[in-house]
Design a protein that fits this description.
about 850 residues, alpha+beta, 6-stranded antiparallel sheet, elongated
Length: about 850
Amino acid sequence: MSETGLRDTDARGFMSAEEGAGEVRALRAQLRNLTALLALPILWKEKHPERIAGDLLEVVTSLLRLECAYVRLSGPFGAPALDGCRPFGADAFSGIARALAYAPLDEDGLPVGGIPAAGGLGLTRVDQRFPDETVVLVAGSRRPGFPLQEESFLLRVAVEQAAIAVHGARLLAREQERRAEIELRAAQMALAGDIGATIAAASDLTSMLQLCAKALAAHLGVAYSAIWTMEEREKVLAMRACAGRYSLVEGRQRQIPLGAFRVASLARERRPYLTNDLQNDPWLSDRDWARSERLMGFAGYPLMVEGELAGVMAIFAREALEAKALESLSTVADAIATGIARKRLDEERATLALREQQAHAQADAERARLRSFFMQAPVPIALVTGPDHVFELANAPFLEMVGGRNLIGRPVREAFPELPGARLLDRAFRGGEPIIDSEHSLTLNRGGNAREGIFRVTLDPWRDAAGAVQGVMIVAVEITDAVVRRREMQARTASLIEEQQWLRTLLDFLPVPVLMIEPTSESVLFANKAADGVLGATNPGASMTVSEARPEAGGTTRMPQDLEPALRAACGKNLRGLEIEWRSPAGNRSLLVGSERLEAKHGHPATVVLAFEDVTEQQHTAELRERLLGIVGHDLRNPLNAIVMAATLLRHDGHLSADQAKAAARILSSGQRMDRIIRDLLDVTKVRLGGGIAVTRQPTGAHALCKQMVDELRAANPQRKIRLVKKGDGAGSWDAGRLEQVVSNLVANALQYGPRDAAVTVVSNGAGGDWVLSVHNLGDPIPAEVFPHIFDPFRRGTDAAASGPDRRNLGLGLFIVRELVRAHGGTIDVTSNPRQGTRFVVRLAREATAPD
């Protein structure tokens, strides 16, 4: 304890009697002040040092009537010092007092460096020191003689009492901290012990974490506690346990993706976190819930095991949490994390054990089913084990196959001594690859009857769980019947090949050219010598003759381009007499083609057979004949006109007798008939020689023209009924003379081939831009073999010869009709069936259309 008194002036005088009485009163006041100072420790008991410093300033300032006072309390163990000043606004004194309080003292107890000017203010400094603690008081007064001895004494007592109180308060604070630390350690040990017992006693992970969550809530006294585990597959935190006094909105807390919410941020950052402003935390997922539950504090701790995240635990509190909350969590974090890892390992072991048990049971069941399948299989099956091939299993068909021998437990070489060896079994066992003996002959003895059997034997190695070959499964399937049928088929195939060669030889001798063509690829499969002779001789410029496309020549070629129309037609239906033009450097040839499609059978592809005939010379002869007919017909018209004219004059001569008139009429009728025949021959000649029939269009009334032709035919056939129907507008632009030929020929054809007691119906119909003529007769339909040729020249119906000599014709009528219709740019169609009869329909445009 030290005291330093300082004044700017220090003058003392002698005391009078009055002054002595005043001194006595002052002494009594000092005694009262001393008593008050000695009572200060009772007032300062368990108070904070800062409060003690403030009270010290208030007491000394009040008791000693100081103008100003300054106090400094040094902190223990390097803690920051506490200082105070009265009055609070004494800035000038505060600076001087602080400098004086901090100034070191010399050997005489005076401040090193002297006393700063205080403006007439008397200053004193009182120190009280304890180990690592110091209380310094600087007091200032303007009273003369300050500080008096009694004032110094009171200041020393005050500072001493304050130092004792401060030292006691700090000792008490340290004692309370130690006691709180002991209690914290005890609570943490109790929590750790509870958690450890829970982890040791829990049977599964869920119950363990639930008990741990309850222990956290109970020991830490928080509103809520929860534990999440890390689910690696889903990359989420899954809530596995929760406990506490208050409810938690668990919907979004049950599955938390990494990187979302505060709990997930703990998992990502892997650092503990504490906040006492939970409601404003940026990572809070549900602020309404936090506000409704009045939650303030939050502490979270990641659960780590060997550097890997196992989960996160967290607590929620209505009060502010201290740092010791994180410390408490840290004491049990490792235990809970390790418990999670162990329980998961236990669960995995239990799962693996259960799977292994199930696998064994399943394997036993599969083995039993397989054995049952083997024993009940209709084919011979046996199992042999080891390098000696000892029979372990053989079903009834296998035993029957080997004649009922006792096989189980015996090696193959012992059970079948007659076999030369078991080389195939050795190869299958050592090589580990299946071996198939496609045809293995065995002598079967069933019921005393011995016969040879042929089997397809499969040797399939079977392995244990480690992959080592343990034995061989023998499966034998009898294929005796199949082998016999195959051999028979091979014999038949050989016979068919011989027959095919014989057929090729026969076709080569035929004078008719024959081609066999595959319709899809259009490749020539076969061509006989006649085909080679015709096609090869007429196509010398080709790079490959048809004969080079024979299969035995080792190649194929596409069918000649000129025959492709025949092939395309043959693919749809069989042909009869299709005429095509064969072009070659030697000249054009006309071929008449017939075909037959053979469907794919017995392994042979679909084939089109083409047979053709060279009709070039016949066509030349026919063309010469038609030219001759044209010349003859043209030359006969002049004498015929003279005959017709003379017969007409004779018929109109009134001096002839009846016989003479009759003869003249007969001559005229015969002449007119000859004129029609010659005219038809000339039209045919024009068409066949490429000139076509010329038409001269002029306005024509089709209805009137039809009526005129029908009237003439009615007059010529009075015994027949001809019905005419007119519809619409019959006006148009046609060649009237040629149109009369069309109507006359069609109606005459219907009269000739229709029944005599049935009517012929003629319909003239003008509709839109067309005029349609329909001629219909009942009776037998046109025969199928005649129908394709009804418009051919010189072709007549089958009953034409029976129509009488006066009805005979050259078979040119329908041909002329078709050509006249074509010359007008129209069409003609025919339908014929037993129920509706025969109908010819001609359709002509009213006006000529421009050619395409």
